[in-house]
Description:
By secondary structure, this protein is mainly alpha-helical. It has helices at about 25-35, 65-80, 85-95, 100-120, 135-155, and strands at about 10, 20, 45-50, 60-65. It has two domains: about 10-65, no CATH class; about 95-155, no CATH class. The protein has a two-stranded antiparallel ribbon with strand order 1-2. Strands 3-4 form a two-stranded antiparallel ribbon. α2 runs antiparallel to α3. The protein is globular and about 50 Å long. The protein starts with 8 loop residues before the first strand and ends with a helix.
Amino acid sequence: MNQRLPKGTYLDVKTGYIKFKNSGRLFHRWVMQQHLKRRLKRGEIVHHKNGNKLDNNITNLELINWLEHIKIHYGPAIKAEGKAELLEQLIPVLESLDTERESRYLKAMFIGVAVVGAIMFVLGLIKPTNVTLWEVGVGLVIIGLVSWLIERSINQ
């Protein structure tokens, strides 16, 4: 890296992000907060437009929500897999979420579903020769969304 890090920061080699030494806070989020002159709200994501996590110039940062972030990072891969119609079906469901409460629930649920999928793979219940990793992931996401929709309808 030929670029100097800002004083009081370090490069987290696991994530590739610059963080503050004293708190571990992400530097690019701090840059956006200084630009906006306010703290970031829950659910606001600071995205590096050019994909370079070390380029924290405000012109390279944009404030987006988590759904926009999913579209940016996973949309091209989903379309490349020929699954664009699935993405188009999921977007209205995801957009209807109350981002404060329900997005936290969904994130926790997706992590849980991913763990279950990993355990099933390790136990041999999911064989990579039978289905692609993409199909396993989509199946687990659909199962998670259906269970969340059922729970949501019961609790209303």
